Amino acid sequence: QKEVEQNSGPLSVPEGAIASLNCTYSDRGSQSFFWYRQYSGKSPELIMFIYSNGDKEDGRFTAQLNKASQYVSLLIRDSQPSDSATYLCAVTGSQGNLIFGKGTKLSVKP
Amino acid sequence: GAGVSQSPSNKVTEKGKDVELRCDPISGHTALYWYRQSLGQGLEFLIYFQGNSAPDKSGLPSDRFSAERTGGSVSTLTIQRTQQEDSAVYLCASSTSGIEQFFGPGTRLTVL
């Protein structure tokens, strides 16, 4: 049974700081990794996906993958209050579905 | 273009009743997924449809849950004899590539 673990938080950072969100996964064979953002009462929306070891940058967001350590992270630079949400880490399951962690709640304080 | 739509947005039912939840995927998306999210929990995979192939039902929590997809498009998730533990937000997602799954707004089910 694949598992995805995240610190539930809340993680509180001041506006303008770097927010670092972390995720570990149990299946060493996992190939695809995703970060979703979910505002309260809303459905998840994809922020980034990453397949290869290393960093992938998209605007203020950077995803980092370390397959040897089975570790994925998301960095948010210049954090804004509008980034306050729950961030869900997910890996692809054997059926093409996504296996989600329980999410980390991020709060960016003005 | 239009995103994934789900109906109803909210459903309150009594324990023991049957409910049907509907999902209308993005046009052209061949893959359709159902998940549920209980309060304070992550998303739990329920069932997956790929085109007109038989669905993968491995995530369904009990035989009270069933789903169908007509014409490779609209899907209905049916829960028979609802129980209080079925209360959750039921989310549908569709995908064309299997990479990015686009989620609908969800149906909030409350079983009294």
Fill in the keyword field for this structure.
heterodimer, A: 110 residues, mainly beta, six-stranded mixed beta sheet, 0% helix, globular, B: 112 residues, four-stranded antiparallel beta sheet
Structural overview:
The complex is a heterodimer of chains A (110) and B (112). By secondary structure, chain A is mainly β. In chain A, 0% of the residues lie in helices and 55% in strands. In chain A, the strands form 2 sheets. In chain A, strands 2, 4, 5, 9, 10 and 11 form a 6-stranded mixed beta sheet that branches. In chain A, strands 1-3-8-7-6 form a 5-stranded antiparallel beta sheet, with no helix packed on it. In chain A, a hairpin with a 2-residue loop joins β6 (54-58) and β7. The mean pLDDT of chain A is 93. Chain B is an all-beta fold and 112 residues long. Chain B has no helices and 10 strands. Chain B has strands at residues 5-7, 10-13, 19-24, 31-37, 43-50, 65-69, 75-79, 88-95, 102-103, 107-111. Chain B starts with a strand and ends with a strand.
Summarize the structure.
The complex is a heterodimer of chains A (110) and B (112). With 110 residues, chain A is mainly beta.
Shape of chain B: globular
Distance between the termini of chain A: 41 Å
Strand-and-helix sequence of chain A, N→C? EEEEEEEEEEE
The succession of helices and strands of chain B, N to C, reads EEEEEEEEEE
Ordered list of secondary-structure elements with their pairings:
The complex is a heterodimer of chains A (110) and B (112).
Chain A (H helix, E strand, L loop, with lengths): L3 E3 L4 E4 L4 E7 L7 E6 L6 E6 L3 E5 L2 E6 L4 E6 L8 E8 L5 E3 L3 E6 L1
Parallel strand pairs in A: 2-11
Antiparallel strand pairs in A: 1-3, 3-8, 4-5, 4-9, 6-7, 7-8, 9-10, 9-11
Chain B lengths: L4 E3 L2 E4 L5 E6 L6 E7 L5 E8 L14 E5 L5 E5 L8 E8 L6 E2 L3 E5 L1
Parallel strand pairs in B: 2-10
Antiparallel strand pairs in B: 1-3, 3-7, 4-5, 4-8, 6-7, 8-9, 8-10
